[in-house]
Sequence to fold (129 residues):
Amino acid sequence: MGKLLSIGLAVILQLGGLVGAHLYYDANPRDVLIVVDSSYGLSGYQSQIEDWLDDFSRSQRYSELHFATDKSYLGKGDANRDKLFRVSFGKMDASLLNQNYPDKQYDERVLLTFTGADASGWEVVSFSQ
Fold:
C-alpha cells in the first residue's frame, strides 16, 4: 500500500509541475524578433526564407513572433509575416540593427539574410542558392 501511495503522489507531483510550467509559459511567452534583410536580391531567396519561417514558427511553442525588415518594424503575429517581402529597399546596413532593435526589448533576435552580414548579438541565418 505504501508503494502505491508513493507512486501516486509522484505522478500527481509530476503532472502538477507540467501543468504549472505550461500555464506559466503560456502566460509569459518569449518575444522573438525576426528581421529579414530587405536588399534588392531578396526575391531570389523568398521560398527558402518562407520554408525556414514555417519550420521556426512550428518549433516556437511558447513564443510571440515579431516581424521586421532591416528598415522597419512590421508587427507581432503571422499577419505581419506576409508583409516581409512586399518591398526591397537597397543594401542592408547591419550596424543599424542594434540601434533599431535593442537587445533588451526581445528575448531572441534573428536576422535572415543572404548577404553574409555580421551582426553581433544576433542569431544570423544566411541563405544561399
Notes: The radius of gyration is 20 Å. Residues 2-27 form the longest helix (26 residues).
